[in-house]
Amino acid sequence: MLAIIGRPNVGKSTLFNRLVGKKLALVDDRPGVTRDRREGEAELIGMKFRVMDTAGYEDDDPASLPGRMRAQTEAAVAGADAALFVFDARAGLNPLDEEIARWLRTSDTPIILVANKAEGKAGDAGINEAYALGLGDPIQLSAEHGEGMVELFDAMRPHLEDNFDPGEPLEALGDDEQGPLKLAIVGRPNAGKSTLINRILGEERLITGPEAGITRDSISIDWLWEHDGQSREVRLIDTAGMRKRARVQDKLEKLSVADALHSIDFAEVVVLLLDSTKGLELQDLKIADRVLEEGRALVIALNKWDVAEDGSKLYQGVRAALEEGLAQVKGVPLLTLSGATGKGIDTLLAAAFETRDAWSKRITTGQLNRWLERALEANPPPAPKGKRIKLRYATQANTRPPSFVVFGTRVDELPESYRRYLINGLRRELGLGAVPVRLTLRAPKNPFDKKSGD
Hints:
The protein is an alpha/beta fold. The chain has helices at 12-20, 65-78, 95-105, 124-130, 149-160, 193-201, 251-266, 282-293, 311-325, 345-359, 365-378, 416-429, and strands at 2-5, 38-44, 47-53, 82-88, 111-116, 139-140, 181-186, 219-227, 230-238, 269-275, 297-303, 334-336, 390-398, 403-409, 438-442.
C-alpha cells in the first residue's frame, strides 16, 4: 500500500488519479476537497500496487473535522508500505509543510519526498528549499502532465517490489480480463494517423488534411472489428503528431504531445505509424523506445504503401534500422498498409490482438523453472573471483507486460549480458515474442544474516 500525504491543495488527488489511471478523486483549486481516505488499484510502468489518497494534513483541534481528517491521514501512513509526501514546488514550503516533515521523520514508514507542479523552472526555488526537510532528494514531477513518473517509479520500486511474495498465489496479481483492445496510433505529424482511423471506422470521424498537426487532443473511439465471422471490441486512440522536442515551441502543441504520451501509458498495444514516402527517422526510433520503456506492446506499420517507391528495398532498410535501433526488443512486427485504400488493415488488427495475447501471457511456475534449468545448463552464470553465482528459481510477478523475478545468490554481480541472455530466452522459448519483458534479480532474505546476502 502506498499513501499520498501533504497539506491541502498540493496536487495529491491529481497524483492519485494519475496512478490509478482514472479520475476517481475530485480535483479542484479549492483546498479541502478530499476528506475520506480513497483507495484504488494503481499501476506505474508495469508495477501494480494499491494507493491511498488522503485528506490535506491540517493543524486543528483533534475533535474538529480537519482534526479527524488528520487522524485518518496518520492511520494511512502507519499502515502503508511507503508514503509520498507531496509539496507544491511552485508555492514553496510553508510552516505546515515543515510540521508534517517533523512528524514524518518520527515515522517508521519509508517516506518519498515529491515536488509536484515542478514543470518548467518555476519550482526550482521550492525544490531547493525542500532539502532542508531532512527527507532526502525530492522527486520532481508534474502529476497533471505526467512528467517525472519514471523517476517516481525508481524511488517507489524498492518499497513495493516485496509485495509480490512468490509463496502466495500469483493469479491474483494479474488482470486476465482482456476487454476491448486499447489500441493507440502514434507517430510524427502527417503520417496519416487520422486517415487510417477513418478508414478503419468506415466514416470521416476525424478531421484530416495536408496540414501537419491537425489533431490536438487524443481521441478515443470504441469500435467492433468484424472479421472471419467474429466481432472483437477495439478502443481506437488517435493522437497528436510528435515532432522533435526542440521543434515544439507552441504551448498548445506541448500539451498535445503530453496528451499523446499520456495515451501511450494507458494503451495496451501501440501502433507506430511511419510515412513510407519519408522512411524511418530518428524521431520514430525515439517514439518506439518510449513505448517500450513504458512497457506497452509495439507494432510498427509503414503507411501510404500504395504510393511507396521500391517497396522491397524500403522494407528491408527499415527492418535493418529497427533491429539496430531497438536492440532491447528484436523482431517487433513490421507491417505495410494504406490508410487511403484500406489494404493491410485486417492484418494490422490481427497482429495487434496477437501481440496483446503475448503481452498478457501467464506462464506456470513449473514451466518457467524447467526453462530456467535448461538455460543454466546451456550457459551457466559466470563465477566472479572464483565464486559461482547461483540462480535457484524463477516466478512470474505480473503480466502486461510479462514481469519475472529470478532468485539466487550474488545476483548483484550478474553481468548485464547474462541478464539479456535470460530475457531473450524467455521471449524465444516461452512464446513472448517481441513484447517488453521485465526481469528482476533478487537474493532471498536470510533471517539469520542482516546483510541479506547468500
